[in-house]
Amino acid sequence: MGSIYDIDQPVRQTLGNVKVAVSSSGNDANPLRPPYAATGDFSGWPFLTIQAAVNFLNKNTGPSSYRQKVVVAANGSAYAGFNLEGFAGSGDVAIIMPFAAATLTTGPNSGTAGSGTSTTQVNQPTSAVNWTAANLRGRFMQITSGGGASGDADLPTIRPIKSNTTTSFIVDAVPGMDSTTVFTIVLPAATCAQSASPPIAGKVMCCTVQNCQAPVKIYGLQCVQAGCDYGLYSTNNVRLECWGGLQAQSSTVAQVRSLDDRYFKYDDAVLNGSANLWVTDAQWCEVNRITEDTATVLIEECRNVIVQADAQTCSGTAVQIQQSGYVKVGLNANSCTTTPLVLYSCSRLEVQNGGLTGGSNTTAYGVIFGKAGSYSMSGTTLTGASGDFQIDGTTSTWANLGTQQSVVGQYGMTVITVSG
């Protein structure tokens, strides 16, 4: 074999959009496929493993108008995990996992939204059987057409369902969603197991993304490997965006881990069990429209942070942000047994997206502040049984706060304001 500089070898470069497929009936060595993807749709010759499909793509992703897609089919058993490494360019790489209609206790799992549907509330389809109240949380709404549709059949609009009555369900806002919206209530239809080549020796990981200068997008990731340390591990990437993920590990410490990514975004996901989200040292970190039941979002040493979450019955801190710069948080937390929001050493924090709300949080405060920082808390109503908030060891209520409260502790001054 010639060297990598051999002029007789082809130069692997992306010349346009690329689409490949992965299926449980696929073949990683199909002779009908070319040796690599320059441009075109190769989904008619699916791979058996996600890793082989990733290896087929070009490391040089080309201009921003190009996208390389790996579209994964539903599978009754888990696919082997995968590793993305060393992609460069402005074009993005997208790993797209499948969803399928969820089995519900009662009511339709698909249909056209009923009259009166808004950007945040979907009413039951006309003449449909009622849903079972509180049965839809932890599932997703996927829009296939009509108001709010994405226009990309491979990457449809998705939102976690936060709550439901017998005749409607609530999601975070979808621009354009209305009574023309065609939806399906779904869950991930494929899972990832252990990766054969984890970047950290001795750690069990399902999916890893590392050292990518090109944008990477992952849709619908679910990891189920028993004893897994990280369902998703990412490090040293310029831009990683994930959405529609379901991490639900009740017997392991599996979590999503981002370390030293320049831009990390994790949206429209469900975190259950011990499947925590842990982000360290990002220049920009966004965690939007997350539902949590017993899980924790931990963000530390990040320059810019945006978090929007809905937490129910969390036994650990729902959101903890520490040693970070400019932070914006929106959190609705109810029936948690530990303080749902903890803020340490944040240079500046503002409340956003519906504020900080919720109650019935037992043996807990609504918020704990400490170790210096400046926090603008206007409109906050989040409460706990032990007090509304604690600031460097001092307990108080929002009603008694006035316009400003400050405490000087061993780390400096912690200041809370409610106006201005």
Query: pLDDT under 50 segments (min length 5)?
Result: 1-11
Distance between the termini: 69 Å
> What would you call the structural class?
mainly beta
Radius of gyration over all CA atoms, rounded: 23 Å
Q: How many helix segments? A: 1
Total beta strands? 33
Q: Key features?
A:
five-stranded antiparallel sheet; 420 residues; mainly beta
Report on this structure.
Residues 1-11 have low confidence and may be disordered. The chain has one helix at 50-56, and strands at 18-22, 40-41, 67-72, 82-85, 92-96, 99-101, 110-112, 121-123, 140-145, 157-160, 163-164, 168-170, 182-188, 205-210, 216-219, 230-235, 239-243, 246-249, 255-259, 263-267, 270-273, 276-280, 284-293, 297-300, 304-312, 319-322, 326-334, 341-357, 365-376, 387-391, 394-396, 404-409, 412-417. The chain has a 25-stranded mixed beta sheet that branches. 2% of the residues lie in helices and 43% in strands. By secondary structure, the protein is mostly beta strands. The longest helix has 7 residues, at 50-56. The chain starts with 17 loop residues before the first strand and ends with a strand.
